[in-house]
Amino acid sequence: MVILASSSPRRRELMKRIYPDYKIITADIDEESSYNLPPLKATLEIARRKGEKVKEDHYDDLIISADTIVIIDNQIIGKPVDEEDAKRLLHLLSGRTHEVITAYCLFYKDKFIEHYVSSFVTFYKLSDQLIEDYVKTGSPLDKAGAYGYQDNDKYPIVKEIKGSIDNVIGFPVEEIKKDFEDILKNA
Predict the structure, then answer these.
(1) Which of 42, 43, 69, 149 lies 20 to 30 A from 33 at CA?
(2) Distances (CA, A) of 154 to 94, 99, 133, 148, 151
(3) Catalytic residue numbers, as ranges
(4) CA 7, CA 24: separation in Å to the nearest integer?
(5) Phi and psi (nearest 5°) for 12?
């Protein structure tokens, strides 16, 4: 069985492009305890801990776990705690470039693969009204950095992406698919 250790609706959708017949088992871990680490190390640790938690009861299954963070000014920007925090984060990112890193892990019996993908995202200069309207939708509240690229058609926030768009959404499909095939080939 293939297990996606994630509650993210976006990851669930993108996972179908890798392997459509999978099961979801989420891992309840404290992510914020890792935020005191350097950003890359933090996201790798969170992704690994999610997968390890699920692996405790599913050793013989292939498990994929992931974590996505937004970094600006060398600080991790997580999910907003409320609407006011979402507005604050969007103002912080407005007109600037930030980095999005997704770390992912694959576990299969005694095999383990860990990688990360980095992309750079530049925002348009956002008006107060756009931020207000976007936050009212509720969409920014469950996303790192308080935005989703998939909302860009209706709320033009992202000006440019250098790197993987799937990574910015939270699941770098191309890279994970390659590692998925490699771990099964070498099993």
Answers:
(1) 149
(2) 17, 23, 10, 11, 6
(3) 67
(4) 8
(5) -60, -45
In order along its 187 residues, the chain shows pLDDT tens digits of 999 999 888 899 999 999 999 999 998 888 777 878 888 999 999 999 999 999 999 999 999 999 999 999 988 888 899 999 999 999 999 999 999 999 999 999 999 999 999 999 999 999 999 999 999 999 999 898 999 999 999 999 999 999 999 999 989 999 999 999 999 887 6
- Concatenated DSSP letters for 85-101? HHHHHHHHHTT-EEEEE
Instruction: Give me the count of residues in the chain.
Output: 187
Q: What is the dihedral of CA 74, 79, 82, 83, to 10 degrees?
A: 80
Residue/partner pairs of 175-181 with CB below 8 Å, 24 or more apart: 175/104, 175/115, 175/117, 176/18, 176/64, 176/66, 176/104, 176/106, 177/17, 177/18, 179/104, 179/106, 179/113, 179/115, 180/18, 180/19, 180/62, 180/64, 180/106
Beta-carbon neighbour count of residue 51 at 10 Å? 25
- Topology of domain 2-185 in CATH is Maf protein (3.90.950)
What is the end-to-end Cα distance of the chain in Å, rounded? 14
| C-alpha distances in Å from residue 147, one per residue of 46, 116, 121 | 20, 20, 11
